[in-house]
Structure formats: C-alpha cells, structure tokens
C-alpha cells in the first residue's frame, strides 16, 4: 500500500521481530495504522516509525512496557523530563548495587583463589592480628543441629537481600566457648554474614581488631572437632587464654563446591597472651 509499511518491512527496518510487533499491538502499546479486513495484515505509517523509535529507546533505557504505554498516551517535554529524570535516579541505584555485587564477587573469588594456600595450612595453628570487622547475626534455634543452623543461615541471607544490606557473600557461625569445652563442636548459637558497617539494621556485632588464634579446617563440617582439639592443645601448650566464643568463617562451602571434602572453614578465637 502507498505510504504504508508492512509488518515485514517494519520488522526489517527496525531490526525487531514480527512477533514483538504483534505483541505490542495486542497490549495496546503500538497499534498498526491499518489492518486489512480481508487477511488481517498489519500496516504502519511513516509517522509511526518515529513513534516506534521512541518506544525502543525507552525500553533500552530500562522503562517497563507498562511505563512506556502510560507515558506515551500523552507526553510533552515536561512529562518526558520528569520520566527521564526518574529513570536516571533508578539507573544510578542500579549502578551502585552492581558495584557492590561486583566487589562481593571479587572478594569471594579472592577467597577461592587462596583456597590452595588454606589447604596447605591445614593442621597448622596460626597466631595473627586480625582487623576489625562487622557481622550480621541471626540466632540459631535449639537444639542447634545442622538443620537449625542451615535455617538461620538462609534467613540471614533472605533478610539481608530484602533490606539490601551491604553483606559479603560469605557465611559463618558462632560456637560458644562452653560448647567447645563440652565437645559440642557443631552446636552453633548464631549464624552470621560478614557485613560493612550500616545503620539499616540493629542485629550487627562488632568484632574488634586484636590478637587471635586460628586454624583452617579442611573437610566436611561434622569432622571439625579434630581441628578444635588441635587449637585447644596449642593454646594450652603455649599458655594462651581464649577470651571469646569461636567464630567460624566459611572459606569454601556449599556456595562454591558440591564436594564436602573440599570445604574449608576458618576457626578463630580471640586470645590473651601471657605478657598481655
């Protein structure tokens, strides 16, 4: 037809599928100028090509089809400025979120790259000066079995994602010192996620900088008692006083491996040395 484009021609010119154009027609976003009553073929005017450009640019800019449809019912320079300004704000939030996610993934990758070093340090008790950090806590319900620990960890992640908290993609647990002394090595009372300082939530614990004793346990979690015994024996032999509960940081766990034999858990206690 004169001065009209078939759906095939428009699809070719705009590099958009016929199915997409048909869908836009069905939802009332972009209707053809004319539909042949005999065969149902859709045809579009030259002016509509500019209109379709606007739709595609807005879609590329992150607007939803619903937002585009509502905006284009009657848009002016003022309404366009308002819509684009709001979208810029939304994009800035997304960029910041992606930067945060990237840094978390980089942190996780660094841990995995160092996994070989951690394996070599298995059975070796380490004295170290740790930096201050924060952890996001979630209580584990009695009887503190693996089931309750898993639930608490999942809830910790779920809460942090819902509130968009600045967590690291790592988990851990707190095992009371009394549990350790009673041989209840896997009975944690808190699950935690390392996190940056934030005022968005109140259940954050500050772990100060200080002298710590640690060991890297390699293997499934139920065998962690052997590593605890080594660290307790070391402290006794070197007259080191343990002054905190145990903080276990999962270096390599279910998030990054299917094989439990590859699990790496850092056990850490704060200690007081004889000359302190």
Topology:
Blueprint: E1 4-6, H1 7-14, H2 18-26, E2 34-35, E3 42-45, H3 46-60, H4 65-71, H5 77-113, H6 115-120, E4 126-130, E5 133-139, H7 146-163, E6 172-175, H8 177-181, E7 190-195, E8 204-207, E9 210-218, H9 225-237, E10 241-242, E11 246-252, E12 264-272
Antiparallel strand pairs: 1-3, 2-3, 4-9, 5-7, 5-8, 6-7, 6-11, 9-12, 10-12, 11-12
CATH-assigned homologous superfamily of the largest domain? Regulatory factor, effector binding domain
Strand content: 15-25%
Give the C-level CATH assignment of the largest domain: Alpha Beta
> Count the helices. How many?
9
Q: Order of SSEs, N→C?
A: EHHEEHHHHEEHEHEEEHEEE
Q: Which consecutive residue ranges, at least 5 long each, have pLDDT under 50?
A: none
User: What fold name stands as the CATH topology of the largest domain?
Assistant: Multidrug-efflux Transporter 1 Regulator Bmrr, Chain A
The second-level CATH architecture of the largest domain is Alpha-Beta Barrel
**Percentage of residues assigned to helices:** 40-55%
> How would the global form be characterised?
elongated
Describe the structure.
This protein is of the alpha+beta class. It has two domains: 4-75, Orthogonal Bundle (Multidrug-efflux Transporter Regulator, Chain: A, Domain 2), CATH 1.10.1660.10; 114-272, Multidrug-efflux Transporter 1 Regulator Bmrr, Chain A (Alpha-Beta Barrel), CATH 3.20.80.10. It contains nine helices and twelve strands. Strands 4, 5, 6, 7, 8, 9, 10, 11 and 12 form a nine-stranded antiparallel β-sheet that branches. Strands 1-3-2 form a three-stranded antiparallel β-sheet. The longest helix is centred in the middle third of the chain and has 37 residues, at 77-113. The mean pLDDT is 92.
